[in-house]
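Suppose a colleague, Dr. K., hands you the sequence of a protein chain of 350 amino acids and asks what its three-dimensional shape might be. Before reaching for any lab equipment, you can write down a predicted structure in token form. Begin with the sequence itself:
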Amino acid sequence: MKLLILTQKVDINDDLLGFMHGWIAEFAKRCDQVTVVCLEKGMFDLPPNVRVLSLGKETGKSKIKYLINFYKQIWRQRENYEAVLAHMNAEYMVLGGLIWRLLGKKTGLWYVHRQINLKLRLAEKLADVIFTASPESFKLKSAKLKIIGHGINLDKFKDNRDIGSETNFKIIYVGRISRIKNQQLLIEAINILREKGVVNLKVDFVGRPIYQEDESYRNELINLADKYSLNNYVNFTGSVPNKDIAEVYRRADLSVNLCPTGGLDKAVLESMAMGLPVIVFNKAFAPLLKGSGGLILTDLSAPELADKICALSTAPKEELNLIGRSLRKKIVDQYSLSDLVKKIVNQLGV
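The predicted structure, expressed as tokens, is then:
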């Protein structure tokens, strides 16, 4: 099959979107030819049957130029693809859906977000099939919907860690700095534990603010850590290129994610793939974490979070590694990138 992929960015060094590089490489294994049209391109190292075409954001082109280039590329490349996959950006399907229908191209939309807007409603009408990770990650009712899970690169995220091997118990929170992610709760929990005499904890917030309101929230988090005198406990490391993020997980003992119930956060699945215990608030993880030892918070409660962290930080090393191996197996069995791409290709096969 010859496939056209439309995505926001192709850059192996990007902290948020660098994972798409691995997706494209996996599609290249299952397709004769892959053409990628992206808004912006940076560094990449992809197989010879992949061609990457940019709409020009990296050169500072205007939005009108992006639109013109979009139509140029999907028309010029029409003989080089039989099916289309729009990744996350519903506007690609809105802009090109009618043309692809007239050309007889089968179209798919990958979308993982709670938001429903006009663009998504229009994209749903135009797409032949819609892919999402979980029931919570696509809220618009559609007969076209295929719930196929996430795809974790198991070659990159390997179970070669040894939890609890350092003096300090290292906790990470991987993700964009944002109020919706409730990162302040982790700082409050660490303060509770420090006041109880638990002093061997270290926390790294791995991620960066994107929007202005995120910058304001980051300042609030820094001030909160200062207020509790936690500068020796809490560190804001900033962004890490996606290609290097596995090493961040490898050096940790626990991954915390306090996002509200919604889609399955990829950072949690990557943590599990590394054999890393996790604590989450998102109830969508309940089926996946069933039988794994109370790793889901019942409420956004700093005392409850502190209790769960304390239980894990004082657990025997063998118990932590047993939890990690169990979580790793679930990702291997259910969420490999190879299986995800196979499902998409089978659905789009022409």
